[in-house]
Every structure is written in C-alpha cells, then in structure tokens.
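User: tokens in, sequence out, please.
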C-alpha cells in the first residue's frame, strides 16, 4: 500500500511540475515580447485565419480532380505490384491424399513455409468447413427466397 501511494505521489508531483513549468514559460514568452513582435504575431495569426478556408478549398479541388482522373494500366500495376492474394495463392480445397508427389500442387509454395502432415490436414479440414458453411448459407438463402416467391403466389 505504501509503495502504491509513493508512486501516485511521484506521478502527481511530476504532473504539477509540468503544469507549473508550462504556465511559467508561457507567461514569460508573452511578457518579453515587444510591440513589433506582438504585431508580427497578430498578423501571422490573422493571415492564417483568413487564408485557411481558401487553402482547404483549393486542396479539395485538387483532390477531387485527382480522384476523377482515370488511372493508366501501367500506373495501376505499379501501385499494386504484388497483391496479397497472389502471395497466398488461390483458395481451393486440396485433395485428401497425404502423399506429396511432384505433380501435385502444394499449399504454401509461394512462401518459404513448409508444412507438416498434421498442419496440412488441419488446413484441409478448415478449408472444407469454410466451403461447407458457405454452401449451407447459400442454400438457406435460396430456400428463403423460394419460400417468399411461393408465399407471394399463394397470397396474390
């Protein structure tokens, strides 16, 4: 308990020290300014306040013009040289066989990861479950749509 209070006291003392230093520095900064320096500061603040809305509008116009511009195929290729999907490969359910023949496409050949037998089985199982869940969701949607169509014909 005493250790916690000591730490909290140190933190509050440090925060109060920062606040006092900031207040002292700010008051000394403005108290030492001459009339010419006050005028310069006032002119800069007013110029910022007057010009800022126009600069924001000008920036908005340039941005809108840039968004409307069509991209060249070369420019699109350079901005997305390697897509994440090309690194991962296409999602397809691998075969259930555990043999690794020369003619079989292996998962993860795009990276330097070599998977063990159990990891490949887990991956196949996970992909199979995801595909089954997606097929089930689509079947339920189609069933719901056909039920609605039937209901429309019965009511109408």
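Assistant: Sequence out:
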């Amino acid at each position: 308990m005493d250790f916690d209070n000591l730490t909290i006291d140190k933190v509050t003392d440090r925060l109060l020290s920062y606040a006092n230093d900031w207040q002292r520095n700010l008051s000394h900064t403005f108290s030492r300014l001459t009339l010419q320096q006050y005028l310069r500061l006032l002119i800069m603040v007013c110029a910022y306040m007057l010009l800022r809305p126009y600069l924001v509008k000008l920036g908005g116009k340039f941005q809108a013009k840039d968004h409307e511009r069509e991209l060249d195929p070369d420019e699109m290729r350079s901005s997305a040289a390697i897509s994440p999907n090309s690194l991962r490969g296409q999602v397809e359910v691998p075969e259930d066989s555990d043999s690794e023949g020369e003619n079989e496409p292996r998962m993860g050949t795009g990276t330097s990861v070599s998977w063990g037998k159990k990891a490949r089985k887990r991956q196949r199982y996970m992909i199979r479950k995801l595909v089954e869940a997606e097929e089930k969701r689509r079947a339920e949607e189609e069933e719901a749509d056909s039920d609605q169509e039937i209901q429309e014909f019965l009511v109408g």
